[in-house]
Structures are given as C-alpha cells and as structure tokens.
Amino acid sequence: PHPSAGGTRATSLVPCLRQVLATDMSKHMSLLADLKTMVETKKVTSSGVLLLDNYTDRIQVLRNMVHCADLSNPTKPLALYRQWTERIMEEFFRQGDRERERGMEISPMCDKHTASVEKSQVGFIDYIVHPLWETWADLVHPDAQEILETLEENRDWYHSRVPPHSP
C-alpha cells in the first residue's frame, strides 16, 4: 500500500527498493519505453511545470531519475567521465581475465586485448545513454539541455579517438 494510506515502515521501503532495482540494465528498454510514453502524454501547468498528479506517475519519474543517475557518467565533464570510464573498463578487463583463466568465453567489452574503449563508449552513448537522456530532457525541458549537450560533446570526443580500422 501507499505509505500515506497507513502503510508500515516496511511497506514504505518497497518504493525505495523499486528505485534501486531500476538500475538493473535488463530493465533499461522497459524503463525507456515507459518514459517515452510519459513524455508523449505529459501534462504541464500553465507556467510550464511538469504535473505529476498521481502516485504511479511520480514513482515512474523517480524510477527513471535513478536510472538516469546510474547512467550519468557520460553526462559529466570530460575529465570526470574519463576517470569513471577507466574504472569501469578496469573492472570489465578483470572480469575478462577471470573468464579467460577459467576457459570461458570472454564477455563483450571485457577482453583487454581486443576491446576498443573509445568505440565501446560511442556505442554505449549512442544506443543506451543518449536515448535515455534525450527522452528525460524532453520530459523536463529545458532543465536537462545542458546535460544533453555535455553528453553529445563527450560522445564526439570519444568518436574522434576511435581507431581508424576498428571493426
């Protein structure tokens, strides 16, 4: 039940747990589709403020806000984004090394001998991050336009560094 309907502390944690689960990448396409629907049907006040007049809409916005935050590294200033990219790629490469040691097939982007960090970041932005942030920016227009611009600049920076004969 909704917390304001006399729910217990435990039941009021359920929406918080759902927000955390919204960071699961297997839910990305579903979250993005729901967000696009919300953009298409959004209601705004006469002053242009987004109107979230029911609990379900508010929860959906919170879920997508957490998902955007989870996928926000490419929206940060380039120096910070590059630091986070280096960290995540180190994590991927460690995973690839463990898979190699165990004789397993190496997961995509986890083979330090063949992965192109630059190409992977361009693909990540083009297919995952940009569609999400572009839709979010449409929902909260104009409040996320600067974030979207930074994302596009970072994508262009990585694209300019993709090795010339990269498959």
Automatic annotation (TrEMBL):
<dbReference type="InterPro" id="IPR002073">
    <property type="entry name" value="PDEase_catalytic_dom"/>
</dbReference>
<keyword id="KW-0378">Hydrolase</keyword>
<feature type="binding site">
    <location>
        <position position="70"/>
    </location>
    <ligand>
        <name>Zn(2+)</name>
    </ligand>
</feature>
<dbReference type="InterPro" id="IPR036971">
    <property type="entry name" value="PDEase_catalytic_dom_sf"/>
</dbReference>
<feature type="domain" description="PDEase">
    <location>
        <begin position="1"/>
        <end position="165"/>
    </location>
</feature>
<dbReference type="GO" id="GO:0004114">
    <property type="term" value="F:3',5'-cyclic-nucleotide phosphodiesterase activity"/>
</dbReference>
<dbReference type="Pfam" id="PF00233">
    <property type="entry name" value="PDEase_I"/>
</dbReference>
<keyword id="KW-0479">Metal-binding</keyword>
<dbReference type="InterPro" id="IPR023088">
    <property type="entry name" value="PDEase"/>
</dbReference>
<dbReference type="GO" id="GO:0007165">
    <property type="term" value="P:signal transduction"/>
</dbReference>
<dbReference type="GO" id="GO:0046872">
    <property type="term" value="F:metal ion binding"/>
</dbReference>
<protein>
    <submittedName>
        <fullName>PDE4D phosphodiesterase</fullName>
    </submittedName>
</protein>
